[in-house]
Amino acid sequence: MNSPKQTKLKFTFDKGVTIPSLIFIIGICLFSVLFPVEIKAVLDEIKNFIFVNLNWVYVWCVTVFVIFLVFLMFSKYGKIRLGTNDSRPEHSFFSWISMLFAAGMGIGLMYFSVAEPMQHYSTDAFSESHVISRAKNAQLYTFFHWGIHAWAIYGLVGLCLAYFTYRYRLPLSLRSCLYPLLKDRIKGKWGNVIDIFALCSTFFGITTTLGFGVVQINSGLETLKILPQTGFIYQILIVIVLVSFAVLSAVSGVNKGIKILSNINVVAVIILLLFVLILGPTVYLIGSFTNGLGNYINNFFDLTFNTHVYEDKTLPWFYNWTILYWAWWISWSPFVGLFIAKISKGRSIREFIAAVLIIPTLFNFIWMSVFGNSAIWIDFNFANGALSALVSDPDALMFRFLEYLPLSNILSFIVISIIMIFFVTSADSGMLVMDSISSKNSSKSPKLQIVFWGILLAVLSLMLLNAGGLEALQTMTLITALPFAVIMVLFVVSLMKALVIDYRYYEKGLSVSTIPWSGEFWKERLKKIISFKTEQSVKTFMEDQVLPAFTELKDEFALNGITVEINYIPDTLKVNLEIHHDIVNNFVYGVIAHKRIVSEYMVDDDNLPDLDSKVTYFPKTYFGDSREGYDVQYFTKNELISDVLKHYDRFLKIIAEESNEMFISTDNNTQGN
């Protein structure tokens, strides 16, 4: 009896990226576990030097990102798709927004929705201001830190990755974002360095966020008396359970686990938001949101460029909040950007930017207004400063705030459930992203690789949590944001260079050798104009006109030393002429039957051509570079030959231009459309 054939498990880790990354990740984590105080002290010194002396780098970089994305959204480049010209989104708009939102700011929203406004409200930096001014400032700066600027950072990285991956067919990797500047050097050591940075940054960011999330979940479970106390043993149980769910979700893929959990969580978040809005000071919250939105718009440019250089009292606050946030969002952008890019294929640049900048920002504003302003209102009117006194304990502040509302236990239970799901969605999307980076976006990675990243996340985050090393790791992450901010500026240059070439490539007019209709065959053309074609008539046109034209061209090209291939698929009514190339993209000119639905008015009008059905067909051209084709049903054989030649003339002129080199030599011939 033959033994069953065993399939050997084949890992797809790229050694040049994975091994150095693991050495650095494990090394930094072990140092943070063994010497948490000493490491944190050294890293704090480096971070403080950067924040005090180079804070302007963060301010200018983030400002450039915002201006650049707004420019693209309203420019002629906004209509370019993240993919071929005929590609369409893979996910519904709601699912898409849910996933990018859950990956981008999930746990942070729950952690800081009460804590941050309360800390701005009670900080010494604004203590001399009137209580009303402090409340307005608390809302304004919370809007600023969680608004357009934060999402511009994520949006830029996500846009660059999606554009170069789906438009240029490059790997879903940060190295691809520098292709116009580095060309084929992205495949070597420079590309590996960029991917190593992305992998380490992603791991550190997720580890620290999940660590703090576990502490908040533990605090909430203690508040509800589900757990007797907060402690490391209980945190181990929480991590094991939630990371296990995250691994199962990640293994099931984006279209199942992650999408379903993200959709559920967005619905749960909206329900919680409505509960707090209705049970809290509703009229005050609606009015304060309206006032705060206007205040944010009026102060937008002042907030953007303000470095507090003339205000010594607020400078420490500026370093510890605004600059820290910009560094934190930048450090998280490789992870969030990669995930956003992974789910954004087929959307136009305008749609991508508008959705990523505006929708999450507006939701964040509503969320922060409802929770933050409710807490400030309760603290001033009922709690006698009890909530302000808890600003140093943000893990418990959310749950203490809910105690002042009706149905507090139910609300606390919903909050914990949402945090848990956000924990899972952040972890599972992080695992997918890390596996993608470490395997250079291989589509054949075994699921065991995702399990590996899940186990590593759980083990190292628990070690750091137990030893008090999470803050040291967080500081390390903030420090690495500075060089990546500079890399992101290069992304801007790279993307702009590519978009200029892209737009010029697709907008380039046809050659002057275009032959217009003549009056020679006007009677035949009139008969074609007043008749509507069936699939059979299109097939006849292809066999009587298109194929003979392509055959004559093939023979003539052969006489000139050029090999031409003709592909005809009668069942799909599709025929094309293709000239193969080793380096540049193949030249393809094809004709396909295209269906058109005719209006009822045309069917019923007696003075229009007779039509038996609302459905008619016509032969339409298509090209290898996904440009929009056109109707050729009135072309003669010779005119079709001429049309092919004018497009081949255009093709040769484009590939002869050095500036188009990166756009026409990106392995399109082997990867398909």
Automatic annotation (TrEMBL):
Coiled coil: none annotated. The chain crosses the membrane at residues 21-43, 49-72, 93-114, 143-166, 193-212, 232-254, 266-286, 323-341, 353-378, 404-427, 448-470, 476-500. Keywords: Cell membrane, Membrane, Transmembrane, Transmembrane helix, Transport. InterPro entries: BCCT_CS (IPR018093), BCCT_transptr (IPR000060). Its main location: membrane. It is a multi-pass membrane protein. GO terms for molecular function: transmembrane transporter activity. It is found in: Cell membrane. One of its GO terms (cellular component) is plasma membrane. Belongs to the BCCT transporter (TC 2.A.15) family. NCBIfam families: bcct. This is Transporter. It comes from Chryseobacterium luteum. The lineage of its organism: Bacteria, Pseudomonadati, Bacteroidota, Flavobacteriia, Flavobacteriales.
